[in-house]
Write a structure and sequence with these properties.
The chain is mostly helical. It has helices spanning 3-21, 23-29, 35-53, 63-87, 92-99, 102-114, 122-137, 147-169, 175-197, 207-232, 237-244, 247-259, 265-283.
Length: 298
């Protein structure tokens, strides 16, 4: 394992830790703010913060850069929005599990559409990761697939497309400029969603909602998504997808630590399968990308 891989994995794991802990914040905030408005607000704040921090990297942007930022931001917004709609129609456990199907969608899409030669352990590791997350999330639910489950599967496809788009767009657009553009276009997409589907829905901006939006904007979005982009600049998409799926693990652990939930035998088995998947992922062959990632200014 190279030093670059270690740094990438550390950044991606920190991302999943932030996202996992924030699950309860999202759930509470959605009681006061509609999904589209929440996604729009947190990403607008993140866009403003990163635009100030990375302003030097925004100089000389071309139309092609803006199109790439629009693509990445649109995919991210749709993943968030469809996931939230699915959550309203299915259980949280099934929603968490079906979302992480991107750990299989990413390597399969890279192989089928881009001819990526995958390491021999990538697909077995992804399958083990899915099995572990199923044990961790489903909790014995066997009521079949419903409309919410179908929407959540679509969400998994959007997340997979977003991970692949970030990897490929970073090759031609400055990494830090892409972060800002992603947030801005995600906010714009969510605004259109809010205006189209959420008119008349109640909004209650009490102290808890404001604090929740602030936490999600600064930690989950500005810091978490920026760390994801930085981590992906040093790791292939299929590798990043496996690490990012650890979000469900940290979500479960935060429920144990913060909410006092109990670890069941099925959860323990799930943790074991996930750990085995990570070992396979880290010890398998990772094929570096041929094109360098553009990190500096223009």
């Amino acid at each position: 394992m190279t030093r670059r891989t270690l740094i990438a994995d550390g950044l991606l794991l920190l991302t999943t830790l932030i996202w996992g802990v924030a699950f309860a914040v999202v759930k509470d905030t959605l009681d006061s703010v509609p999904p589209g408005l929440l996604v729009m607000t947190r990403h607008l704040i993140a866009a403003l913060i990163t635009a100030v921090l990375f302003r030097k990297h925004l100089r000389g942007l071309q139309a092609a850069d803006i199109r790439r930022g629009a693509l990445v931001g649109f995919l991210l917004a749709m993943a968030y929005l469809v996931q939230t709609e699915g959550l309203a129609l299915t259980t949280a456990g099934k929603n968490a599990f079906l979302t992480t199907t991107y750990v299989l969608f990413v390597p399969l899409a890279l192989r089928l559409f881009f001819g990526r030669r995958l390491g021999t352990r990538v697909l077995p590791a992804a399958a083990l990761m899915l099995l572990g997350i199923a044990l961790l999330s489903l909790g014995g639910e066997q009521d079949g697939l419903n409309r919410g489950d179908a929407l959540t599967l679509v969400c998994g496809l959007f997340y997979a497309a977003h991970i692949i788009a970030v990897e490929r767009c970073q090759r031609r657009t400055d990494l830090y400029a892409l972060i800002v553009l992603q947030f801005a276009f995600c906010a714009l997409t969510a605004l259109f969603w809010h205006l189209a589907f959420e008119r008349g829905m109640p909004v209650r901006l009490d102290r808890g909602a404001v604090l929740g939006i602030g936490y999600l904007a600064v930690f989950s979005t500005t810091i978490g998504m920026s760390l994801q982009n930085l981590g992906q600049s040093m790791a292939p998409g299929e590798h990043a997808a496996l690490i990012l799926s650890m979000e469900s693990v940290f979500g479960a652990l935060s429920g144990v630590v913060i909410l006092g939930e109990r670890i069941t035998p099925a959860m323990g088995a799930g943790f074991a399968f996930i750990f085995l998947a990570l070992v396979l992922c880290e010890t398998g062959t990772v094929h570096p990308r041929k094109e360098p990632v553009k990190e500096g200014g223009r």
